[in-house]
Amino acid sequence: MLIDQILPEYDEREYHQIGIRGDSREIYKTLRSIDFSDSVIIRTLFRLRGLPARSTNFDSLLQVGFLLLDEIPPEEFVLGLIGKFWTYRAQIVKLDPAQYGAFNQQGYAKLAWNFAIQESAPGLMRLSTETRIVCTDDRSRSRFKLYWTLIGRFSGLTRKEMLRLVKRRLEGK
């Protein structure tokens, strides 16, 4: 998987999956176009974090600082973000995707977030999302761990809701 190449070592990890009837191209296209702010849960949690709550789609994530690090349509794409996530505005570092791998300035955390689609049975696809975080030094690691203790379950709730939205969109349920 691409995420294994982009961030093979990490301090924290979160993984969720859901089964969806359909084909990978349709799921991939939906992921790249769906507006996650259709969910009250996501809209509320994003607003609390200071992220755009109105239109929360792939393009709007890129506008707030996420980087498209790599993709293999229709199998997987990986977004990246670097910042001080434990601060109110997260102090997002604006850089080019090519600079992501080499970034190691102390005091920050690097996040890699993927969506991957794999066939699990004929006509049934597994849509998964994984988030990995690595901190650039011990101090940022301890700050992030405290932050993750408080926010990790809400992050998981957001990711699970994203998977459910895609499933509902494609299966009409």
The outline comes out as: globular
What is the tally of beta strands?
A: 5
Q: Domain count, please report it.
A: 1
Compute the separation of the termini in Å: 29 Å
Helix content: 25-40%
The low-pLDDT segments are: none
Strand order in the largest sheet: 1-5-4-3-2
Number of helices: 6
Rg over alpha carbons: 16 Å
Q: What would the average pLDDT be, to the nearest integer?
A: 93
Instruction: Sketch the major β-sheet.
Output: 5 strands, antiparallel
CATH architecture: 2-Layer Sandwich
Name the helix and strand elements from N-terminus to C-terminus, one letter apiece.
HEHHHEEHEEH
Strand content: 25-35%
Predict the CATH topology.
Alpha-D-Glucose-1,6-Bisphosphate, Chain A, domain 4
Structural class: alpha+beta
Oligomer: single chain
State the CATH class. Answer: Alpha Beta
Summary tags:
single chain, Alpha-D-Glucose-1,6-Bisphosphate, Chain A, domain 4, five-stranded antiparallel β-sheet
